[in-house]
Amino acid sequence: MGPGAFPCGHSSPRDREEPPMHDHRRLGRELDLFDTDPLMGAGLPYWLPAGAAVRHALEEYVHETERRAGYRHVYSPVLGKRELYEISGHWSHYSEDMFPPMELGAEQVVLRPSLCPHHALIYRSRAHSYRELPLRMAELGGMYRSEPSGVLGGLTRVRAIQLNDAHVFCTLDQAAEEARAALDLIGRAYEALGIRPARYRLSLPGAGGKYVADAGMWERAAALLTEVLDASGVPYEAAEGEAAFYGPKIDVQIADASGREATLSTVQIDFHQPERFDLHYIGPDGARHRPVMVHRSIIGSMERAVAHLIELHGGAFPAWLAPVQLVVAPVSDAQVEAGAALVERALAEGLRAELVGPEQGSLGARIRAARLVPYQAVIGAREDAAGEVALRLRDGRRPAALASAELLRRVGALVSARSNQLWDEQGELAAIG
């Protein structure tokens, strides 16, 4: 994904009325999701266990979504020789936003500002036939931007970025369909995450010399993306000066509670880098042909995506994303053993569960402390004797007492389905599972 691609459950009515709940920096620290340290440096946050759990769940979702859509995953290094970025065009068009080169003997290496040059090299390393196309290559990889200290903030503007990135190498005839499919993946991901796009933007070049000079390339790429947007039926706006240096793009904009916009997801069509890296495939005529490179990111960077989700949900994430999905609260010491056994079973079934015993305070205090946890299972003497739990949901509902096994089946089904639904009264998902 090129530099232009990364400029840097629904919330409840109560959340919308309380702007402070939308500050991900405050919530991130209060909920022990992430933090910073001056010795690590500005714009370099670290993830605490709770935040890492959210991020890991998000990464698993993206990885699975891409795999099902026919993407194959790769890993590539975060360093590259300066020459690599001279070929790609980053050095001449974007070097002011890159970290300075490091001297390694007679060579200079650079922290990469994007993943696309590495993926172009991976494609180039093997011969390809038209029968292999479209070839969809994806990676959740690190990249680095030398952002000025004045624009850094929380997780939204950072210097070390983990990007959900992918590149599709295809024929010209396949490019529009691949871009359309990428836009569809973005829409489905937003639905699962509870994200509502603020608007769609067709980002075009503007005045100035930051863009590669090839008028025909720009016209072809813009025409294809316009075709994709028109066919999708989503309203969009054209914006000059927002394109990547090598081509136009579709930007999916999100907005925070104050209306500030940011780009989260992108789809781009690139004729420039296949030319620069001399990429080719063998066509049905036996001759060499130039592929088109479709860049796309479903949820952009992990940092910006999680920041938006923190603010969107006020820390009350959908159950499948929640750092802790189930807390088990034994009423007294006599039920601790039963509570610990339930937690052990929950962990074995892949749920993130914790025991909150009487040593942590009164039952009311423990329930209040776990107010953002989707499911709170209380075990008193009566429940212990019957092998049941008294379930409390985060939204205040209290379903009828459930057998421990039934509780785990229902919660597990909702989590596995990555549902935004907090509870399934009829247990239909559990029955399907």
Describe the protein in words:
The model is unreliable at 1-21 (pLDDT under 50). The longest helix has 22 residues, at 172-193. The protein has helices at 13-16, 24-30, 49-68, 82-88, 90-94, 116-124, 172-193, 215-232, 272-276, 302-313, 336-348, 363-369, 381-386, 404-416, 428-432; strands at residues 34-35, 46-47, 72-73, 79-81, 102-104, 107-111, 135-144, 160-170, 199-204, 236-240, 249-255, 261-270, 281-282, 288-289, 292-297, 326-330, 353-355, 375-379, 388-393, 402-403. The protein contains 15 helices and 20 strands.
Provide the gyration radius in Å: 24 Å
Q: Indicate the overall shape.
A: elongated
Low-confidence stretches: 1-21
Percent strand equals: 15-25%
Total DSSP helices: 15
Percent of residues in helices comes to 25-40%
State the secondary-structure class: alpha+beta
Q: Give the beta-strand count.
A: 20
> How are strands sequenced across the largest beta sheet?
3-7-8-15-12-11-9-10
Largest sheet: 8 strands, mixed
- For the termini, the CA-CA separation is 37 Å
Q: Tell me the quaternary state.
A: single chain
Q: Roughly what is the average pLDDT, rounded to an integer? A: 90
List keywords for this structure.
single chain, eight-stranded mixed sheet, five-stranded mixed sheet, 20 strands, disordered N terminus
List the helices and strands and how they pair.
Blueprint: H1 13-16, H2 24-30, E1 34-35, E2 46-47, H3 49-68, E3 72-73, E4 79-81, H4 82-88, H5 90-94, E5 102-104, E6 107-111, H6 116-124, E7 135-144, E8 160-170, H7 172-193, E9 199-204, H8 215-232, E10 236-240, E11 249-255, E12 261-270, H9 272-276, E13 281-282, E14 288-289, E15 292-297, H10 302-313, E16 326-330, H11 336-348, E17 353-355, H12 363-369, E18 375-379, H13 381-386, E19 388-393, E20 402-403, H14 404-416, H15 428-432
Parallel strand pairs: 3-7, 9-10, 16-17, 16-18
Antiparallel strand pairs: 1-2, 4-6, 5-6, 7-8, 8-15, 9-11, 11-12, 12-15, 13-14, 18-19, 19-20
Helix pairs in contact: 2-10, 7-8
